[in-house]
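Our consortium's second objective concerns turning raw sequence data into structural hypotheses that experimental partners can test. To show how far this objective has progressed, the report includes one record in full. It was chosen at random from the queue rather than selected for favorable results. The single chain below, 179 residues long, was entered without modification.
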Amino acid sequence: MRMTKWLILGASTLLIAVLTGCSAPASSFEEEYEALDQSVLADNAVKVAECVEDETGFEVTAGSDGSVSYSGRQVPESQSELVDAAIPACFEKLGFMSDGRLSASQLERLYNLQLQAQDCLANEGYESRDAPSEQVFADTWGTPDLWAPWAEMGKYQLSQEELLSLIERCPDPASFGSK
């Protein structure tokens, strides 16, 4: 049975405010990280699912992690290409994805929020490789070499329930956007 899942990794409206503006002192990054609310991603996924249904006539599932997915029971194989195209189109139409380009200020903020995520994950017992310098982070943005603590979580083979619980405690800043 075919199962397709799309996850918001481009942008949601919440971090637009977090990633825009001027630099902030380190203590404010802690506050910003603590303010990341996973429920915003779930709400955005519901909006995308509604858009996909409006565009295609097929109902898809909105996940609490911000994902949008469907199974073969929801969408016939012959219509999967239509739905596969509609999902990212709806993410973009609703403003939850961007082209991924960030200003220097936005990169600085995202880097510091990633450091907060790394600390949170470490406090939960999940280690990741050492953070690179801010310059290396900026230079590798948008490449496979980009450092992000959550990118290393696959090595822990968490169940879906464990993963969702961890996301609630330690949100992935990249999931909230980069507009």
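The partners drew two points from this record. The radius of gyration is 17 Å. The chain has seven helices and three strands. Both points have been shared with the crystallography group to help prioritize constructs.
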